[in-house]
Design goal:
heterodimer; A: 278 residues; mainly alpha; MetI-like fold; 70% helix; globular; B: 301 residues; 2 strands
Chain lengths: 278, 301
């Protein structure tokens, strides 16, 4: 306790300033992005203080008929959600099921095989499979399935669940079985609540990574009807050079939901990192 | 009920349940990993335009061509530049942030690490939008540099500045994420060790290099492995901002593989490039782990 009351030396003041400075650096791009999305079009990129505020950029995104398609941006946002939500749900369910089978089914006679498959898969970078995967799935071009199916199972998520289940005592699961609960009841009433901490981490990470995916979505769903928000911004990247305001607005719409989602769960997320390091 | 049945039957049922639970993964593994993997090796030996029905077996010719391909050589050279810059700067950035977060008062420590973590959540596309216009000719930044400091840089025309801007974007994004791992590791160092060090007169910088850093070697190894994968696989930023240029100054493996396979439809050659790239990643991660294990044996606790 005494240490805290100790007098502050110059070095402490210097480090405090450095801390504030680095926080500013890490948040400045977000501030800049949001600011440019709400200033008048004549001042975009010409100011770093809020003045001449206007919602023209957002208005353009959702109401302008310039592109001939007023729904384009809103639909892209919807597409992003329609892809990310199923992918995240499947990744979580598969992680839970495989994690449970690998750790809590004591007499499951295939653990070793599955574990080796997982390790083998982790060994190869994904880019190696890009072309053949595209060839297998090119019949699903411009469908949600084409974007969802190849990304919905995450080896990383499975490993996270396996590691987490290993920390849970077997006795709880044994006891439930002795009491006559069937496997599905055990999964629903014991495994799911018990793994909530790791579910938060896997949920946030999978959702964020899927949300920010670019290359696969660009390849498999190039039609504007199916483009995700991330892809749509990248295709409009150079087309709005004269008036970048709407691009900033779209970037804010792309970024803010993820940031808010994380801020809501930030506590669980940090606990999860502690777990991952053990 | 189960207990009355013979044990063998119960074991068999458990195995069946296990395979049932793992079946989505097994199907995924076979269809979207194993088949594409085998196909990748077969494709790499083909001269095949993605769009045409004709293909020709060329053996190792794709690989041999790759060694003489200017674009491939540029991607290979750049991948090391990206690797060294991103890994070292984001590790140093992460360490600095972690040390600063660690000396924050307990109440604000959580918020502190979250604030540094936010960049990691941003999409490369959104940050590229911002960067493109922030560094454009008429932006406030360039106007300021021109009028006040008389510096006129055409950021994405000059190879050095184009590369530097991309590196800054990536380091900005990753540092706070790695700091989260490092903060957790620092907090994991027990108070006993710190106190013992203090009694021995080890404080400040000395303590950092002789106690804190060696004790964090396992975490640093994890970060180096993650950063190696990320830095070698960069593509969003150069794809949007420079298309690999100027010259080939910012191009990467992923970008060249993409252009080859999907804009020039040269799928066999693109896949051969991807295999070479996979070998590079594998070797790099192997080297990192070997070096770090040696370091850990020598200095670790």
């Amino acid at each position: 306790m005494k240490k805290i009351l100790k007098q502050r030396r110059p070095i402490d003041i210097f480090l405090d300033i450095l801390t504030l400075l680095l926080i500013l650096v890490s948040l400045f791009p977000l501030y800049y992005m949001i600011l440019q999305s709400v200033v008048d079009w004549t001042t975009v990129d010409k100011t770093i203080i809020p003045k001449n505020l206007s919602l023209a950029s957002y208005d353009y995104l959702f109401h302008s008929t310039n592109s001939g398609d007023t729904m384009m941006w809103l639909r892209a946002l919807g597409n992003s959600l329609l892809v990310c939500i199923p992918v995240t749900l499947v990744a979580l369910s598969v992680g839970l099921l495989v994690g449970y089978a690998m750790t809590k089914l004591k007499h499951f006679n295939g653990k070793r095989i599955i574990f080796n498959l997982l390790l083998f898969e982790m060994f190869f970078p994904k880019i190696m499979l890009l072309v053949p995967k595209y060839m297998i799935l090119k019949d699903l071009a411009n469908t949600y399935a084409g974007m969802i199916i190849p990304t919905m199972i995450s080896t990383w998520a499975i490993f996270m669940y396996i590691n987490y289940f290993e920390t849970l005592p077997n006795e709880v699961f044994e006891a439930a079985r002795v009491d006559g609960a069937n496997t599905f009841r055990i999964l629903y009433h014991i495994a799911m609540p018990a793994t909530l901490p790791i579910t938060t981490i896997v949920f946030l990470t999978t959702f964020m990574q899927r949300w920010n995916e670019l290359m696969w979505d660009m390849l498999i769903a190039p039609s504007t009807r199916f483009q995700t928000l991330n892809v749509l911004i990248s295709t409009r990247f150079n087309m709005m050079a004269q008036h970048p305001g709407p691009l900033y607005a779209a970037s804010v719409i792309l970024t803010l939901p993820i940031v808010i989602l994380f801020l809501c769960f930030s506590r669980n997320f940090r606990e999860g990192i502690h777990f991952m390091l053990k | 009920m189960d207990r009355k049945k013979p044990k063998k039957l119960q074991y068999a049922r458990e195995t069946a349940a296990g395979f049932l639970f793992c079946s989505p993964y097994i199907v995924f593994f076979l269809v979207l990993f194993l088949i594409p993997l085998i196909w990748a090796f077969w494709l790499s030996a083909m001269n095949w335009n993605l769009m045409s029905p004709n293909r020709e077996f060329v053996g190792l010719q794709n690989f041999l061509n790759a060694f003489r391909d200017k674009k491939v050589l540029a991607a290979f050279k750049n991948s090391w530049k990206y690797f060294i810059c991103v890994v070292s700067f984001s590790l140093i950035g992460g360490l600095v942030i972690a040390l600063l977060v660690n000396r924050m008062p307990m109440r604000v420590r959580g918020i502190g690490s979250v604030l540094f973590f936010i960049p990691y959540l941003t999409s490369g596309v959104a940050v590229s939008v911002m960067t493109k216009y922030l560094f454009s000719y008429n932006s406030i930044l360039n106007t300021f540099l021109r009028e006040k400091l008389n510096i006129g840089i055409n950021w994405f025309i000059n190879p050095t500045s184009a590369f530097a801007v991309i590196i800054i974007m990536i380091v900005w994004k990753l540092s706070g994420y790695y700091a989260l791992y490092l903060t957790a590791a620092m907090q994991g160092i027990s108070a006993d060790v710190k106190e013992a060090a203090e009694l021995d007169g080890s404080t400040g910088i000395h303590r950092f290099f002789h106690i804190t850093l060696p004790m964090m070697l396992p975490t640093i190894t994890t970060i180096l492995t993650l950063a190696a994968g990320t830095s070698l696989g960069v593509y969003t930023e150069p794809f949007l901002l420079t298309e690999g240029g100027p010259g080939n100054a910012t191009t990467t493996w992923t970008l060249e593989i993409y252009y080859r396979a999907f804009t020039r439809f040269d799928s066999g050659y693109g896949t051969a490039m991807a295999i070479l790239f996979a070998i590079q990643i594998f070797v790099t991660i192997r080297i990192i782990n070997t070096v770090m294990r040696k370091l850990n044996q020598k200095y670790g606790c």
